[in-house]
Design a protein that fits this description.
Radius of gyration: 23 Å
Keywords: Cell membrane, Cell shape, Membrane, Peptidoglycan synthesis, Transmembrane, Transmembrane helix
Order of helices and strands: HHHHHHHHHHHHHHHHHHHHHH
Structural class: mainly alpha
InterPro entries: Lipid_II_flippase_MurJ/MviN, MurJ
Largest sheet: none
Strand content: under 5%
Shape: globular
Subcellular location: Cell membrane
GO molecular function, one term: lipid-linked peptidoglycan transporter activity
Number of helices: 22
Protein name: Peptidoglycan lipid II flippase
Number of strands: 0
Length: 541
Amino acid sequence: MAASNIGRAGLVIAAGTLTSRLLGLIRSIVLVYAIGSIGAGANAFATASQVPNTVYTLIATGALTAVLVPQITKAALAADGGARYINKLVTLAIVGSGAIMLAAAAVTPLLIHWLGASWPADQVRLATMFAFWLLPQILFYSLYTVLGEVLNARSLFGPYAWSPVLNNVLNIAGLLVFVWFFGSDPDGRRGVEAWNVAGEALVAGSTTLGVAVQALILFAFWRRAGLSFRADFGFRGVGLGTMGRVAMWTFLSVLLTQATGLFNTRVMNLAGQDEAGIAAWQLGSLIFVLPHSIITISIVTARFTRMSENVHAGDLAAVSRDLQGSARLAALAMMFFTVTMAVLAYPLIRLIQPSSSYEVIATVSVVLLANLVGLVPFSLLFVFNRGFFALSDTRTPFFIQAGQCAATVVAAVLCMGLPTGMITATITLVVSITWLVQMTVTFLLLRRRIGPVGGRSVVAGLLQNAVAAIPAAAAGVGVLVALGGISEGAFPVAGFGGALVSCAAVTVAMGAVYAGILLLLRNPEAAALARRATAMIPGRR
């Protein structure tokens, strides 16, 4: 794919992802307005959503992408352009994910009972009912990923990036209807006894409906990709065995990570009704992953097909250049968002929870701060893993992931002895630290596999980013203090308007300082972005 096409694809993906994420943010605002971010109902819903959410997170960060793009790229060399292979692949995805969904349904009651072992029986029942409404997401998220990656592999990036917009619109509509009939509960005070089938259907059912539409709408774009779907259950004869061997390690990684996440959920559910639990963790994670999803995934997704093509062509130097460029761009952006969101933690949570008490804002903000420690290594890990995935090597990332999961489980067990109000934030912080270790090991092993990956250049970029981030953070704190600080009743945290103004003012101040220092340091990525921004000014070339 030509560089100009890569740029256009990146813009399409970034625009769609940005729109979807902004709507997702609105959806989260409506959700916490409806059921809160702490309390029995919020934690029951958050616990029930862990299985499909975990699967989606793995899909969104490329678990299936690791298998699909290289294999589809190979299949495209066939006489039929890969159409037969793709039909078999989609059929297999429907059958396989449907079987997994049914298996999950069979064990859901026992699983929810284990996850909520410290809960009263009525809260366990509520979480179980939520879970049954949410389980079909496993099928539709898998279908969405397969269909989307087929379109991506054919350089049709828009539908995959934009279809989540429909998902969020439908989900927001369902939540608004819930609030209309059942009222709001921003502090999570609604008792379990207040829930009925209609309320469960509006909150959880609308979520699943949105995911279904997000997946099925992609079929409408297949003709543009030169495809037409016909179910094909003859899974042998077109190389699916090769994919299966690659996918085995991905499946094991999914299984391991999901099991670790479920164990962490069980430990977080030890939190009391007024303490940060799994719902607070999900909210903090949503904010944490927002810049990664908009920027890092957009950068790498547009380049991943080219990396896979270069692997097949034997041009590992080109793969290395793409990895180095992606890592430096991701690091520049994620360092800025790390320090900016850390300074704005309280106002950001107030934006999402405009009607919640100050105590709830403070409780959730601590979890967000623990998450932000891992933003840069999390994004760099995403980039470096793409090197292995382009090589169709999912075995190496699995063993690295296994070490990270083992460390997380040990930490979670130790956290069970902490005061319950500290458990969620502490587990989150430990996971952030393990991402740094995992990223470093992944980079070192990748370098052994493909040769130099520009490690010195990436580290030099990180150092420049860190040097620029320190005075930028100081500028942000200064603006925030000038606006009143973050104590209870202060302008930046008193309400939605004050939080919005404060976030905007602090972000502009920090962005100006961060960019200015990077330009003084002659950072090439900052210089390139500045030239692109200047070229967009009317009358400038």
